[in-house]
Each structure stands twice: as structure tokens, then as C-alpha cells.
Design goal:
The chain is α/β, with parallel strands linked by helices. It has helices spanning 3-8, 15-20, 28-38, 54-60, 74-82, 88-97, 101-106, 108-125, 134-138, 142-149, 168-181, 189-192, 200-211, 221-224, 227-243, 279-287, 310-322, 331-336, 343-358; strands at 157-162, 186-187, 212-219, 248-252, 268-269. It has a five-stranded parallel β-sheet, with helices on both faces. The longest helix has 18 residues, at 108-125.
Length: 373
Amino acid sequence: MDPASSCSTVSGEHSKDFVNLTISVLRLPTRERLSCMLNAKKVIPSPENIPRDWRGLCTLLNYTIPSGCDPTDPIGKIFKFCEAKTTIAHFIQCLQRIDRYDVVEETEELINSDIIYFKEQCSLANPTPVVPNDFDINVITLDDINASNNGLPLTRYDAFLLYDKADIQSATAVVEKLENDYKLKLCLKDRDLRPGVMFEYQSIIKLISDRCNWLIIIVSNDFTNSPWNRFIMNYIQSLAIEQRLPKIIPCVFGDCTLPQELKCYVHLFFNKYNPFCDPWNKLRITVSPYKNLALTNSEEPNNSYQKLSIEESMNTSTTVVEKKEVIKFSNEEHHLLPKTKSVFDRLVKTVGNISVKVVPQKWNKKKVKCTSL
């Protein structure tokens, strides 16, 4: 089946766009709708004997989910690895081959709106609507703009701070503590994301995956109730499982119900006092294990030691060695020195004395006299 002919049945207005654009232009609502309809397994196969769910898409798109990985959102995983090379026309054709015309009809308006939004964003960025190149896609934060203008590599961050707007006070405390006191570099969506960046959720996922060492999550009931936050959290969690690397640090500042996805992690509780645990120190050591841990405050180190040159430090060490003297004792003075005994010798001697005193003498039967009553 020709991809162009299959798309003409859906929308003749955007049939050319379906052939030219990839599924990467589909926004979050469209992807969530596809996940809800295709993640559930179907028992009855298609007329071509292909599963009528995400398994059939994996077969037609020549993609295999790695063994040992059981993602909660297989459609999201398919989008991650196939969105750059799969056109919208080919994706719709795969849906038709697995006999899921209901999905095509349900998502028709969403896909058309995503294409219109994509073309509008391209027209605002450039008079001629062109797909942005890789360099523009990688410039995500305000620091990236300065780095690209000066010919420097893109900025890397110690952690990305993910939080809900209702937890702005807790987020402010984390930023002030980690950046001002511990000199770490955090990335925040509201503060650091470049205005006008296209596909916000894709840019944030790319930023966390490639250029942030950790994802710090402020866990709360508001955070759990946000679909956007849960989508980012689940995606990064599946990425960490696939790469077999720790990525998420959950932080709790108030009373809340922990989501099931985060119960397997060790949490940092800032709302509970524990004399054996300093959550700020543990967070600092985890996020930045290779930095100078002695600088716990914003105070600058003493620069007097840095003023010493290498020659002066070598001369100083040589002087110290030369001042060492060997003290010799005569034979008479040697006998006057206190003699030290090892703990083991003293213990053996003490135990030996006790054993001699405790062992009783043999009983002499001849000395026993029996008296009659």
C-alpha cells in the first residue's frame, strides 16, 4: 500500500505533510492517546495474523524491546527509538495493517493539529518553514546560547530539578542550598529553558538524558497528580533501567503518599529529624561526588597556601627532612628506659597465673576418715 494513498483517506489537506514529516512532531496529548489505545494487549490478531497492539507495531517497524526491560509504556519506548526515522504516513499504514482503524479515526484531529502547530512554529522561527537542524535542536537552555555564540561546548549540569508549581518553596530551598552553598549547577525548566524552544517535553527529556547527571524530584501529592511530571519521571526511570545507571533522587519535604514508581528508591526525607542522617550532606555527596567536600559553606578557601610556588614547597619539605635528628642512648641509659610489654604477653601471663590457682589438688582417699553416727 502506498503511504500517500493511505494518508489521503485520513486527511487530503495534510497528505504531503504526512509523507514528509516524522512522528517526532506529535505532541504529548497525541502520544498519550496512542499509548492508552495501543498499550493494552489484544487477543484477536489482524487479518495478516499480526497482533493488534504495540507488539504488531514493533513487528512492522522492525524494533525489538530489549530483553529484561518491561516498560510501563511500550508505545512511548517505540516513539523514543523510531520517531526520527518513521514518517506519519508509514505509522498510519502500520496501524491499518494491524486492523486498528479505530486508532486512526480517534487520533486524526490530534495529528492534524500537531502538524499545524509544527508548521506555525517553523514559520515563526524562519520565514521559510524548514525543519530545524541538529544544532538548533541541541540549543535548549540560555547557557547553550552563550556557549554556542562563543564556540564552546554545550553546558552540562549536575542535576535537573523537577517539581510541581505548588512546591515552589521547597524548590527554592534546594536551589539556594545546592547552588549558593555547595556550588553545584542545577537546571530548572522555568529558569533555564530557552524561550521559544520547540517540543518542550522532548527538549527536556533530551536535556536530562544527555546533559544532566541526576534528576532530583521533589515528591508531593501535587507532583504525583500531574500527568506531565509523571511522564517525565517514568521516561527517565525506564532510561535508567535500560542503561543500568542510577538517575533519580527523590526528595520529600512534606507529608505525601509516595507513588509506586518511586518506592524502590532510597528517599531523602527533609521533613523528619534523624540524628544519624543529614539529608543535605547526603544530597551534596551524591550529586557531586568528585568535588571538594570540605567546602560545605560558601566561604572561600584560604589562598595563602596557593601563593606558595612549587620551588618554595620543595624547599620547605627539604628543610623539614634536614631538621630530623637521630637520638642515641648509651647502654646505661638504655637500661633505665621503661620496658614495654605487649598486650598479648601480659594476657598470657595473667591467664596462666589464674589457671594455676584455680586447678584443685588431687583428693587423697587415705586422709578421709569415716565416723559412725
